[in-house]
């Protein structure tokens, strides 16, 4: 799930950068990209992978 969130955040960062949209400092393309990298790191670490039933 966090991998999908990371992909969406990377897409938004790309759109902000490619369209040259002027945003405030909190939503700059670099900050959105860093949020995507954080979500991707959490996904790779196994956090947010969902619940697995043990038998």
Description:
The protein has 55 residues and is an all-alpha fold. It has one domain (2-45). It has two helices and no strands. The chain has helices spanning 2-18, 29-45. The longest helix is centred in the first third of the chain and has 17 residues, at 2-18. The chain is elongated. The two termini are 23 Å apart. 11% of the residues are buried. The model has no long low-confidence stretch (mean pLDDT 81). It comes from Streptomyces echinatus. Keywords: Membrane, Transmembrane, Transmembrane helix. The chain crosses the membrane at residues 34-52.
> What is the distance, rounded to the nearest whole angstrom, between the alpha carbons of the first and last residues?
23 Å
Profile the largest sheet. Answer: none
**Helix coverage percent of residues?**
55-70%
SS strand fraction? under 5%
Low-confidence stretches: none
Q: Count up the helices.
A: 2
- Dominant shape: elongated
Indicate the radius of gyration in whole angstroms.
14 Å
The run of helices and strands is: HH
Keywords: Membrane, Transmembrane, Transmembrane helix
Protein name: Secreted protein
Transmembrane segments: 34-52
């Amino acid at each position: 799930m966090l991998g999908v969130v990371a992909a969406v955040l990377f897409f938004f960062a790309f759109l902000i950068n490619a369209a040259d949209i002027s945003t405030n400092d909190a939503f700059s393309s670099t900050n959105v990209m860093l949020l995507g990298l954080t979500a991707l790191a959490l996904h790779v670490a196994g956090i947010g992978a969902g619940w697995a039933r043990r038998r």
